[in-house]
Amino acid sequence: MTEHSDHPHLTATAAVVVGIDGSQESDTALTWAARTAADRDRALHIVHCTNPIADRTPRSAYDAFIYATMQDIRLAGEKMLAAARADALAEAPAITVTTELATGNPSRTLIDASAHAHLLVLGVRDTAGTIAHLGSTLLAVTAHARGAVVVVRGPDPDRRTGPVVVGVDGSSVGEPAIGAAFAEASLRGGELVAVHAWSDLSQGQFGGTSYLQMPIEGFAVAEEALLAERLAGWSERFPEVVVRREIELFGPRENLAQWSQTAQLVVVGSRGRGGFRGLLLGSTSHWLVQHAQCPVMVVHHD
C-alpha cells in the first residue's frame, strides 16, 4: 500500500522510475520495476535518453542529413518507449504507466528524475560499452542520485525468498540505508540480516601475518554493542521484522557478495565509516552493483 508522507520519495505521487536503453538488461529492470510498482500501488515512469535532437530547419545538405538522422533517433526512441509501456502493462495491468523521451546527458536526466522518485531502477550489463548503453552511466547515477537507486542484476532478480541484507557501518550517516532495509524487509515479509564489518580490509595477509591472527581485544563485544545500538530504534519501529545480526572482522565486499547469492536484496548506504567507509564512492559498492548475485539498493542521505 502506498505510504503518505512529506518525504519526497514516500509521497503518494512518487513513482517508480526506470531507465531503459533497449538492452536485455534494461528489459529485466523494466519487469522488476513494473512488479514493484504494482506491489506498492505506485505509478511507473519509464525514461529513455537520446543525444540532443536537432529541431531547427536544415539550411544545408549536412544540416539535412543531421536533421533526418536525429528524427530517426527520436522515432526509434518513441517506438522503444511504446514497446516498454506495453510490456510493463502486460506484466502489471493495473498500474499507471507514463513515458519520457529525454535528450542530453543520460546520467543527469536520471539523477534529476531520482529527486522525486520512490525508487530509481536501472539494469546493468557485465561490461561497459558505448555512451548510449545505460551501463556506462551506472556509477555516475548511483554516486549522485537522490533517495534510493536499485540496480537489478543476478540470475534470479525477482527472487521472492531469502532475506534482505544490509551493510551497517558505525556512523549515523548510514541510518537511511538501515531504515530502507527495514522497510523493504517489512514489505516483503522477510528476515533482515544486518552485516557489520569492523575493517574494510579484504581477507589475506599483511606483513606476513593473517588478519585473523592479529590481537583485537574485545572486538566481538564492542562491535555487537555498536550494531545493536544502530538497529535498536528501527527494530522498535518495525517490530514485525525478524533481525539477524552478523559481525565480521574484515571483507565487507566478500561478505555482502556471499549473502547476495541467497538474498532478495542487498542494501548499502551512500557513504559511511568503519568497515563500510565510502561504500558508494569506494570499491565495495562499485563492485557490488556490478557483480552481486541479486538486486542492490544504494540509499543516499538526502
Q: What amount of the residues lies in strands?
A: 15-25%
The ordered H/E elements are: EHEHEHEHEEHEEEHEHEHE
Quaternary structure:
single chain
- Count of extended strands: 12
Report, as a whole number of angstroms, the end-to-end distance: 23 Å
Average pLDDT: 80
Shape: elongated
Helix content: 25-40%
Characterize the biggest β-sheet.
Answer: 10 strands, mixed
Poorly predicted ranges (pLDDT <50, ≥5 residues)?
128-134, 201-211, 272-282
Q: Major sheet: order of its strands?
A: 3-2-1-4-5-12-11-6-7-10
Discrete helix count: 8
Give me the secondary-structure category: alpha/beta
The gyration radius over C-alpha positions equals 21 Å
Overall description:
With 302 residues, the chain is of the alpha/beta class. 38% of the residues lie in helices and 19% in strands. The chain has eight helices and twelve strands. The protein has helices spanning 24-39, 61-91, 106-114, 138-144, 175-188, 219-237, 252-260, 283-291, and strands at residues 16-19, 44-50, 97-103, 119-123, 148-152, 164-167, 192-197, 205-206, 209-210, 243-248, 265-269, 296-299. Strand 11, helix 8 and strand 12 (296-299) form a beta-alpha-beta unit. The longest helix has 31 residues, at 61-91. Mean pLDDT is 80; it is low at 128-134, 201-211 and 272-282.
